[in-house]
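quick q for whoever's on today - can somebody do inverse folding on this one?? i tried earlier but teh output was garbage lol. tokens:
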């Protein structure tokens, strides 16, 4: 059970790290860091949604 969750989460972080260059958060302050991480997650979710919509339309 744990490996299933770990495998899915690992792909998300891997895509954000490699594909979106979000490896290191280089900002000053926790508020800006949370904002940057939140925006990275939002963009990932939007990209994933578009991909899933394309797969569903085929």
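ok took a stab at it. sequence:
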């Amino acid at each position: 059970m744990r490996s299933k969750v770990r495998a899915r989460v690992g792909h998300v972080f891997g895509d954000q790290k490699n594909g979106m260059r979000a490896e290191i958060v280089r900002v000053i302050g926790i508020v800006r860091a949370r904002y940057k991480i939140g925006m990275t997650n939002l963009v990932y979710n939007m990209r994933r949604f578009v991909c899933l919509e394309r797969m569903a339309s085929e």
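fwiw The first helix runs from residue 2 to 19. also The helical segments are 2-19, 30-57. so keep that in mind when u check it
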